[in-house]
Amino acid sequence: MNQPLLRFIVTKNYKNLSLEQIVRLKNLNIFIGSNGSGKSNFISCLKFLKDSLTKIPDESRAVSSFEDAVAQIGGNRILDVSVESPARVRLAYCFSFSQNSQTNIPARDSGILDLKIFVNRDNARGVNIAEECLYSGDILHDSTPSTPFYYYKFHDREFGKGAVSVYDEPGQFSTTHFEALDNILTNFLGLTAIPRLLEDSQYPPENTPVYRIRRDLIELVSKWQFYNANNMDLNLIRMAEPKIGGSDIYLSLSGDNLPLVLDNLIQQDIDFEESINQAMKAILPKSRRLRPIRSGRLSLTVEWYFHDIKEAFYLNEMSDGTVRMLCWATILNSPVLPSLLVIDEPELGLHVSWMPILAEWIKKAARKTQVIITTHSPDLLDYFTDCLESVFCFYSEDKTHFSIKTLSKEMLNDKLEEGWQLGDLYRVGDPSIGGWPW
Fold first, then answer.
1. 29: Cβ–Cβ under 8 A, 6 or more apart, which residues?
2. Where are the domains of the chain?
3. What is the number of alpha carbons within 13 Å of residue 92 lying toward its C-beta?
4. CA atoms of 120 and 315, how far apart (whole Å)
5. Quick count: other Cβ atoms within 10 Å of Cβ 191?
């Protein structure tokens, strides 16, 4: 992967997270910071976008996917407590876009989905889209002297109305103009509604630049995967026997489909079985072979063989840490990685001797896709000393709001030359690293 697919996020008035200054993400991103410093809020911005774009609305509750996604991250409490209500919360996401060789319209290498969400604290359902647009470039349009190319603008002049860029001539991809659209709902993300809006208009979808970009963007975001070590249900993983035939290639949030994922990945990639077994030998040298097997006629389980022991072991006989490491090995060594992989505190419950192994798996995955890891572990951080530019520290601006700074070798060169590792500096609360609540 040459460049990260998600370049940066900008927020304004969103909880305690102050990200108005652009901080560029990389393929590997290690987040550190004290509890309550905004790491989870950053990740909730990503979950919100995925849920808004990909979840099917619950018609029985008359709740849109956007409304449900907002409710999941706090509803009307997403507004910064220091900001007077009602107000607008801004969330802007910059992505890498592939260049369309058929078009001469510039700056197609990246684009920004810019949302302004109206929030009223006095109304439990007082959250709506106040403004939404998708435009080209990798800098925010209010800070650049040039005018970006807009794929669409919704609600910017009047609620329920907007405009979409349309090619001047069907089949000609050189110049565009704006055409008006009406009946744009404020409780749906406009990006999801574009097919319906274009079907009701006189403009064929394929005659709009947004048509292909929208498809690519939703496909990208739909493949984001989020994991939290606290949500891994070890008892459920040990006892689960998922049914044969499911198409799962990503581990579920609880991990209960582990045998099925292992089986599908082995069937899909001839080298994966050897890869996962090598990973297990790294943490348990006596490990001989691990494999998913049929349990009864229609279910799967995992059996595990060790050198000098004839009988197989099963997951319900393995330690918590071993089961956790098997989950991370399955996720990070998978031949089918998500477009963005987010893992909260993967070090939980693991022996310190496994930290270099876990760190290597993370680095290996980041060479193939974009990875975000949050951690409080100095033992794990030690093994990212060689990639300081990938470490992002969430720090307090005014004891209430938090921003992000990136580390660099220049900042820490003197201490590194003395033999300090990144985790050492984190342990002692070195102010150049941050991550401590004081």
1. 370, 371, 372, 373, 390, 392
2. 6-25+36-222, 227-337
3. 30
4. 49
5. 22
